[in-house]
C-alpha cells in the first residue's frame, strides 16, 4: 500500500502513525511544525513487539514553520513487523503580551493581547493561577477556553504553555 497518509499530531503523548501489520510501505516522511510561537522536539521511531525501539529521530528540534523531510527510507509494516510511532515535546512556557481580567466565563477577553499570533488551539493559558485549554481563537483580544475561568484578579502577565503541533505526511 503506497497511499499518502496525513496525521495532525499534538501534545506529548506517544502516538502511533502506522500500526504493525498494516501492510504499508513508506519511503518518505515529512514533519512540519505548525505551532505559531515555539519549536518542539520530535522522536520518531519504529518498534516491534519483543524487539524494542529503533529511533529514526530522537530529540530533534523542529523550529517554528520548519519542515523536516526524512527521505529514502525502506520501511514496511507487514504482519509481525514494525509499527511507526511519534513522540513530541512541547515548547517552553512564555508570558503573553497584554493582560487578561477573567470574568467567570469560557470566553476570555484580553487587553492589548495578540492571541492570533501568540496562541494556538490546544495551548494552555495560565491566568491568575488558573490553567485553561484554548478551544477557539476569535481575535487578538478574544479567545474561548474549554472550562470557564473564575472571576479573579486582573493578570498583567498571563502565561502560555504551547502544545506541540506537527503535521506528518507519510508516502
List the strand order in the largest sheet. Answer: 10-16-13-14-15-12-11
Please mark out the parts with pLDDT under 50 across 5 or more consecutive residues, or reply none.
none
**Rg on CA atoms, Å:** 19 Å
Portion in strands: over 45%
N-to-C terminal Cα separation, in Å?
10 Å
- Specify the biggest β-sheet: 7 strands, antiparallel
Mean pLDDT: 91
Oligomer: single chain
Shape: elongated
Order of helices and strands: EEEEEEEEEEEEHEEEEE
Give the helix level as a range of percent. under 10%
Number of alpha- plus pi-helical segments: 1
Structural class: mainly beta
Q: Quick one: how many beta strands?
A: 17
Describe this structure in words.
- The chain is an all-beta fold and 171 residues long.
- Helix content is 2%, strand content 50%.
- The protein contains one helix and 17 strands.
- It has one helix spanning 115-118, and strands spanning 5-10, 15-18, 25-26, 29-33, 40-48, 52-62, 67-70, 75-76, 83-89, 94-95, 99-100, 107-111, 124-127, 130-139, 142-145, 159-161, 165-170.
- The strands form four sheets. The chain has a seven-stranded antiparallel beta sheet with strand order 10-16-13-14-15-12-11. Strands 1-17-4-7 form a four-stranded antiparallel beta sheet, with no helix packed on it. It has a four-stranded antiparallel beta sheet with strand order 2-9-5-6, with no helix packed on it.
- The radius of gyration is 19 Å and the shape is elongated.
Amino acid at each position: 500500500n503506497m497511499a499518502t497518509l496525513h496525521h495532525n499530531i499534538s501534545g506529548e503523548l506517544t502516538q502511533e502513525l502506522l500500526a504493525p501489520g498494516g501492510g504499508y510501505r513508506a519511503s518518505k516522511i515529512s514533519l512540519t511544525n505548525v505551532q505559531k510561537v515555539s519549536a518542539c522536539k520530535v522522536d520518531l521511531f519504529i518498534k516491534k513487539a519483543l524487539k524494542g525501539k529503533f529511533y529514526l529521530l530522537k530529540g530533534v528540534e523542529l523550529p517554528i514553520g520548519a519542515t523536516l523531510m526524512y527521505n529514502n527510507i525502506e520501511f514496511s509494516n507487514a504482519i509481525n513487523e514494525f509499527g511507526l510511532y511519534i513522540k513530541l515535546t512541547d515548547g517552553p512556557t512564555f508570558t503573553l503580551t497584554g493582560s487578561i481580567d477573567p470574568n467567570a466565563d469560557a470566553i476570555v477577553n484580553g487587553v492589548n493581547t495578540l492571541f492570533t499570533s501568540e496562541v494556538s488551539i490546544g495551548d494552555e493559558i495560565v491566568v491568575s493561577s488558573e490553567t485553561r485549554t484554548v478551544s477557539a481563537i476569535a481575535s487578538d483580544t478574544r479567545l474561548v477556553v474549554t472550562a470557564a475561568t473564575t472571576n479573579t484578579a486582573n493578570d498583567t502577565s498571563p502565561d502560555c504553555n504551547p502544545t506541540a503541533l506537527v503535521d506528518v505526511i507519510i508516502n
